[in-house]
Amino acid sequence: MRVLGEVLAANYHSFTFRSSERVPSDAVVATPLGGGAFLVGRVGGVDASAPDRAVYEVEVLRRGEPGPGGGIEFFAPREPAVPGAEVYEPPREVAAALFGFGADPKRSLRVGTALGGAVEVLLRPESLWRHVFVCGTTGSGKSHFAGVLVEELARLGIPAMIVDPLAEHLGLVASLGGAVVRPGRDYEVPLSSLTPEEAAQAVAALEGTHGYDLFLFSFTALRREVEEGHRSSFGLGDVLRRMERDGIHALRLDGYDVRVAMARVEHSLKRHRFLGEAERGPDWVGALNSGLPLAVDCSSLDALQVQLLAGATLRELQRLRLAGRIPPLAVFLDEAHLLAPSDRETPCKQVVREYVRMGRHWGVGVVLVSQNPLDVDRRVLAQCNTRAVFALEPDQLEALQGVKSDATPAMLRGLPRFPRGTCLLTGSYETVRHAVVVSVREFLGRRALRGAAATARATFPAKGAAAVGSPFRQAF
Ligand SMILES: Nc1ncnc2c1ncn2[C@@H]1O[C@H](COP(=O)(O)OP(=O)(O)OP(=O)(O)O)[C@@H](O)[C@H]1O
Ligand SMILES: [Mg+2]
User: Quick check: CB of 272 below 6 Å from ligand 1?
Assistant: First the structure.
């Protein structure tokens, strides 16, 4: 515990202290109150009115007290610092506890360091169930940060499903022993897994033709049969047969018009190669119960196709999760503005909204990555409790309600010029309690998994039955 100086003046929210050392802004400092209690705060900057520039201003964050079992408990401050009392650099465990970081690296997500390398940033895995939003300018390190989370989840035996529009994470997933699946080749979703709105978008080019109306008529009828339990799924062949019948008998169309309509629908839907007759691979239950990541390579798909595929896949995972067939997991949506944009509806926006609203109860975390928060649906953003903000212009920050939380002016001023791999991490009481600047660690590759077998066994002891007995499972 290094003494830095002593308190000069104090009120309930802040105090000043003089120090002969140069104390970096944003440093965490503490001062005793008596009875083992102390105030802990953050250096905001130098008091410009002091002629020797050796007086520092501190914003008080919490009052700390020794808790039962040797830990520290934090409360709202209720008295000012004591003038003349020592100001010291608290032990790193205290600083880590202040931010809400985990204490045990074996059970935490090790994303990097803070306070000039003094504190290891250990996120509690449960904080993921309250979702993470990652933003920042191009090349600032967002996808890398997501990749670090994937590595850490693999080490803890928590599965991750990555929707990867730019095929950026495939090498990482493969290096961790996870699976990479390619839609259309080893992965099809039945046409019946689309909602009527999604189906309409899939044939949007036909709008205004008999093909469009007849397709939706028949699609909706078949969907009803699935919902009523008369059939389990249907594909393009089923829809075409149904269109022929409905066109002639129900809509009383001319036979030629019906055939043209069928040909157009067939042509439109065959473009989406991942739409099949029935569910075909991947084996979600097997893959996700392995505790390893799985990436869906969407690089050959256009934006609409990524949306359709992501929507159908998220609904399937939701079904399996609620049936208890797959363990708690994290879903990564890179280029999230494609899936849940702020300015229009997309096929999968509804299911993404449902994930972020309900994920905490289901044990499903969503990590959304996008350059500009203004491009992402506000309702989705509002549910992301943890935000990792890489280099970003201040006006773009405005979209993130509460993101500034208690970030100091120095942090916000520095934000546009953050170097690659540095982010401002903010959250809530359950995740990251105070804003903190984090240097994201480098990839470890397979080294990330060292000791993973033991961790995974402790986390998910029974394979197949997955996480029974694990703390992640017990929470749900
Ligand atoms: N913390 C880090 N340590 C080491 N390398 C990093 C770190 N962060 C980013 N990089 C490297 O910097 C490059 C750009 O990072 P990244 O791809 O994550 O940017 P991005 O923010 O996702 O960009 P885009 O908006 O274009 O998707 C990559 O080559 C990545 O490996
Ligand atoms: Mg990226």
Answer: no
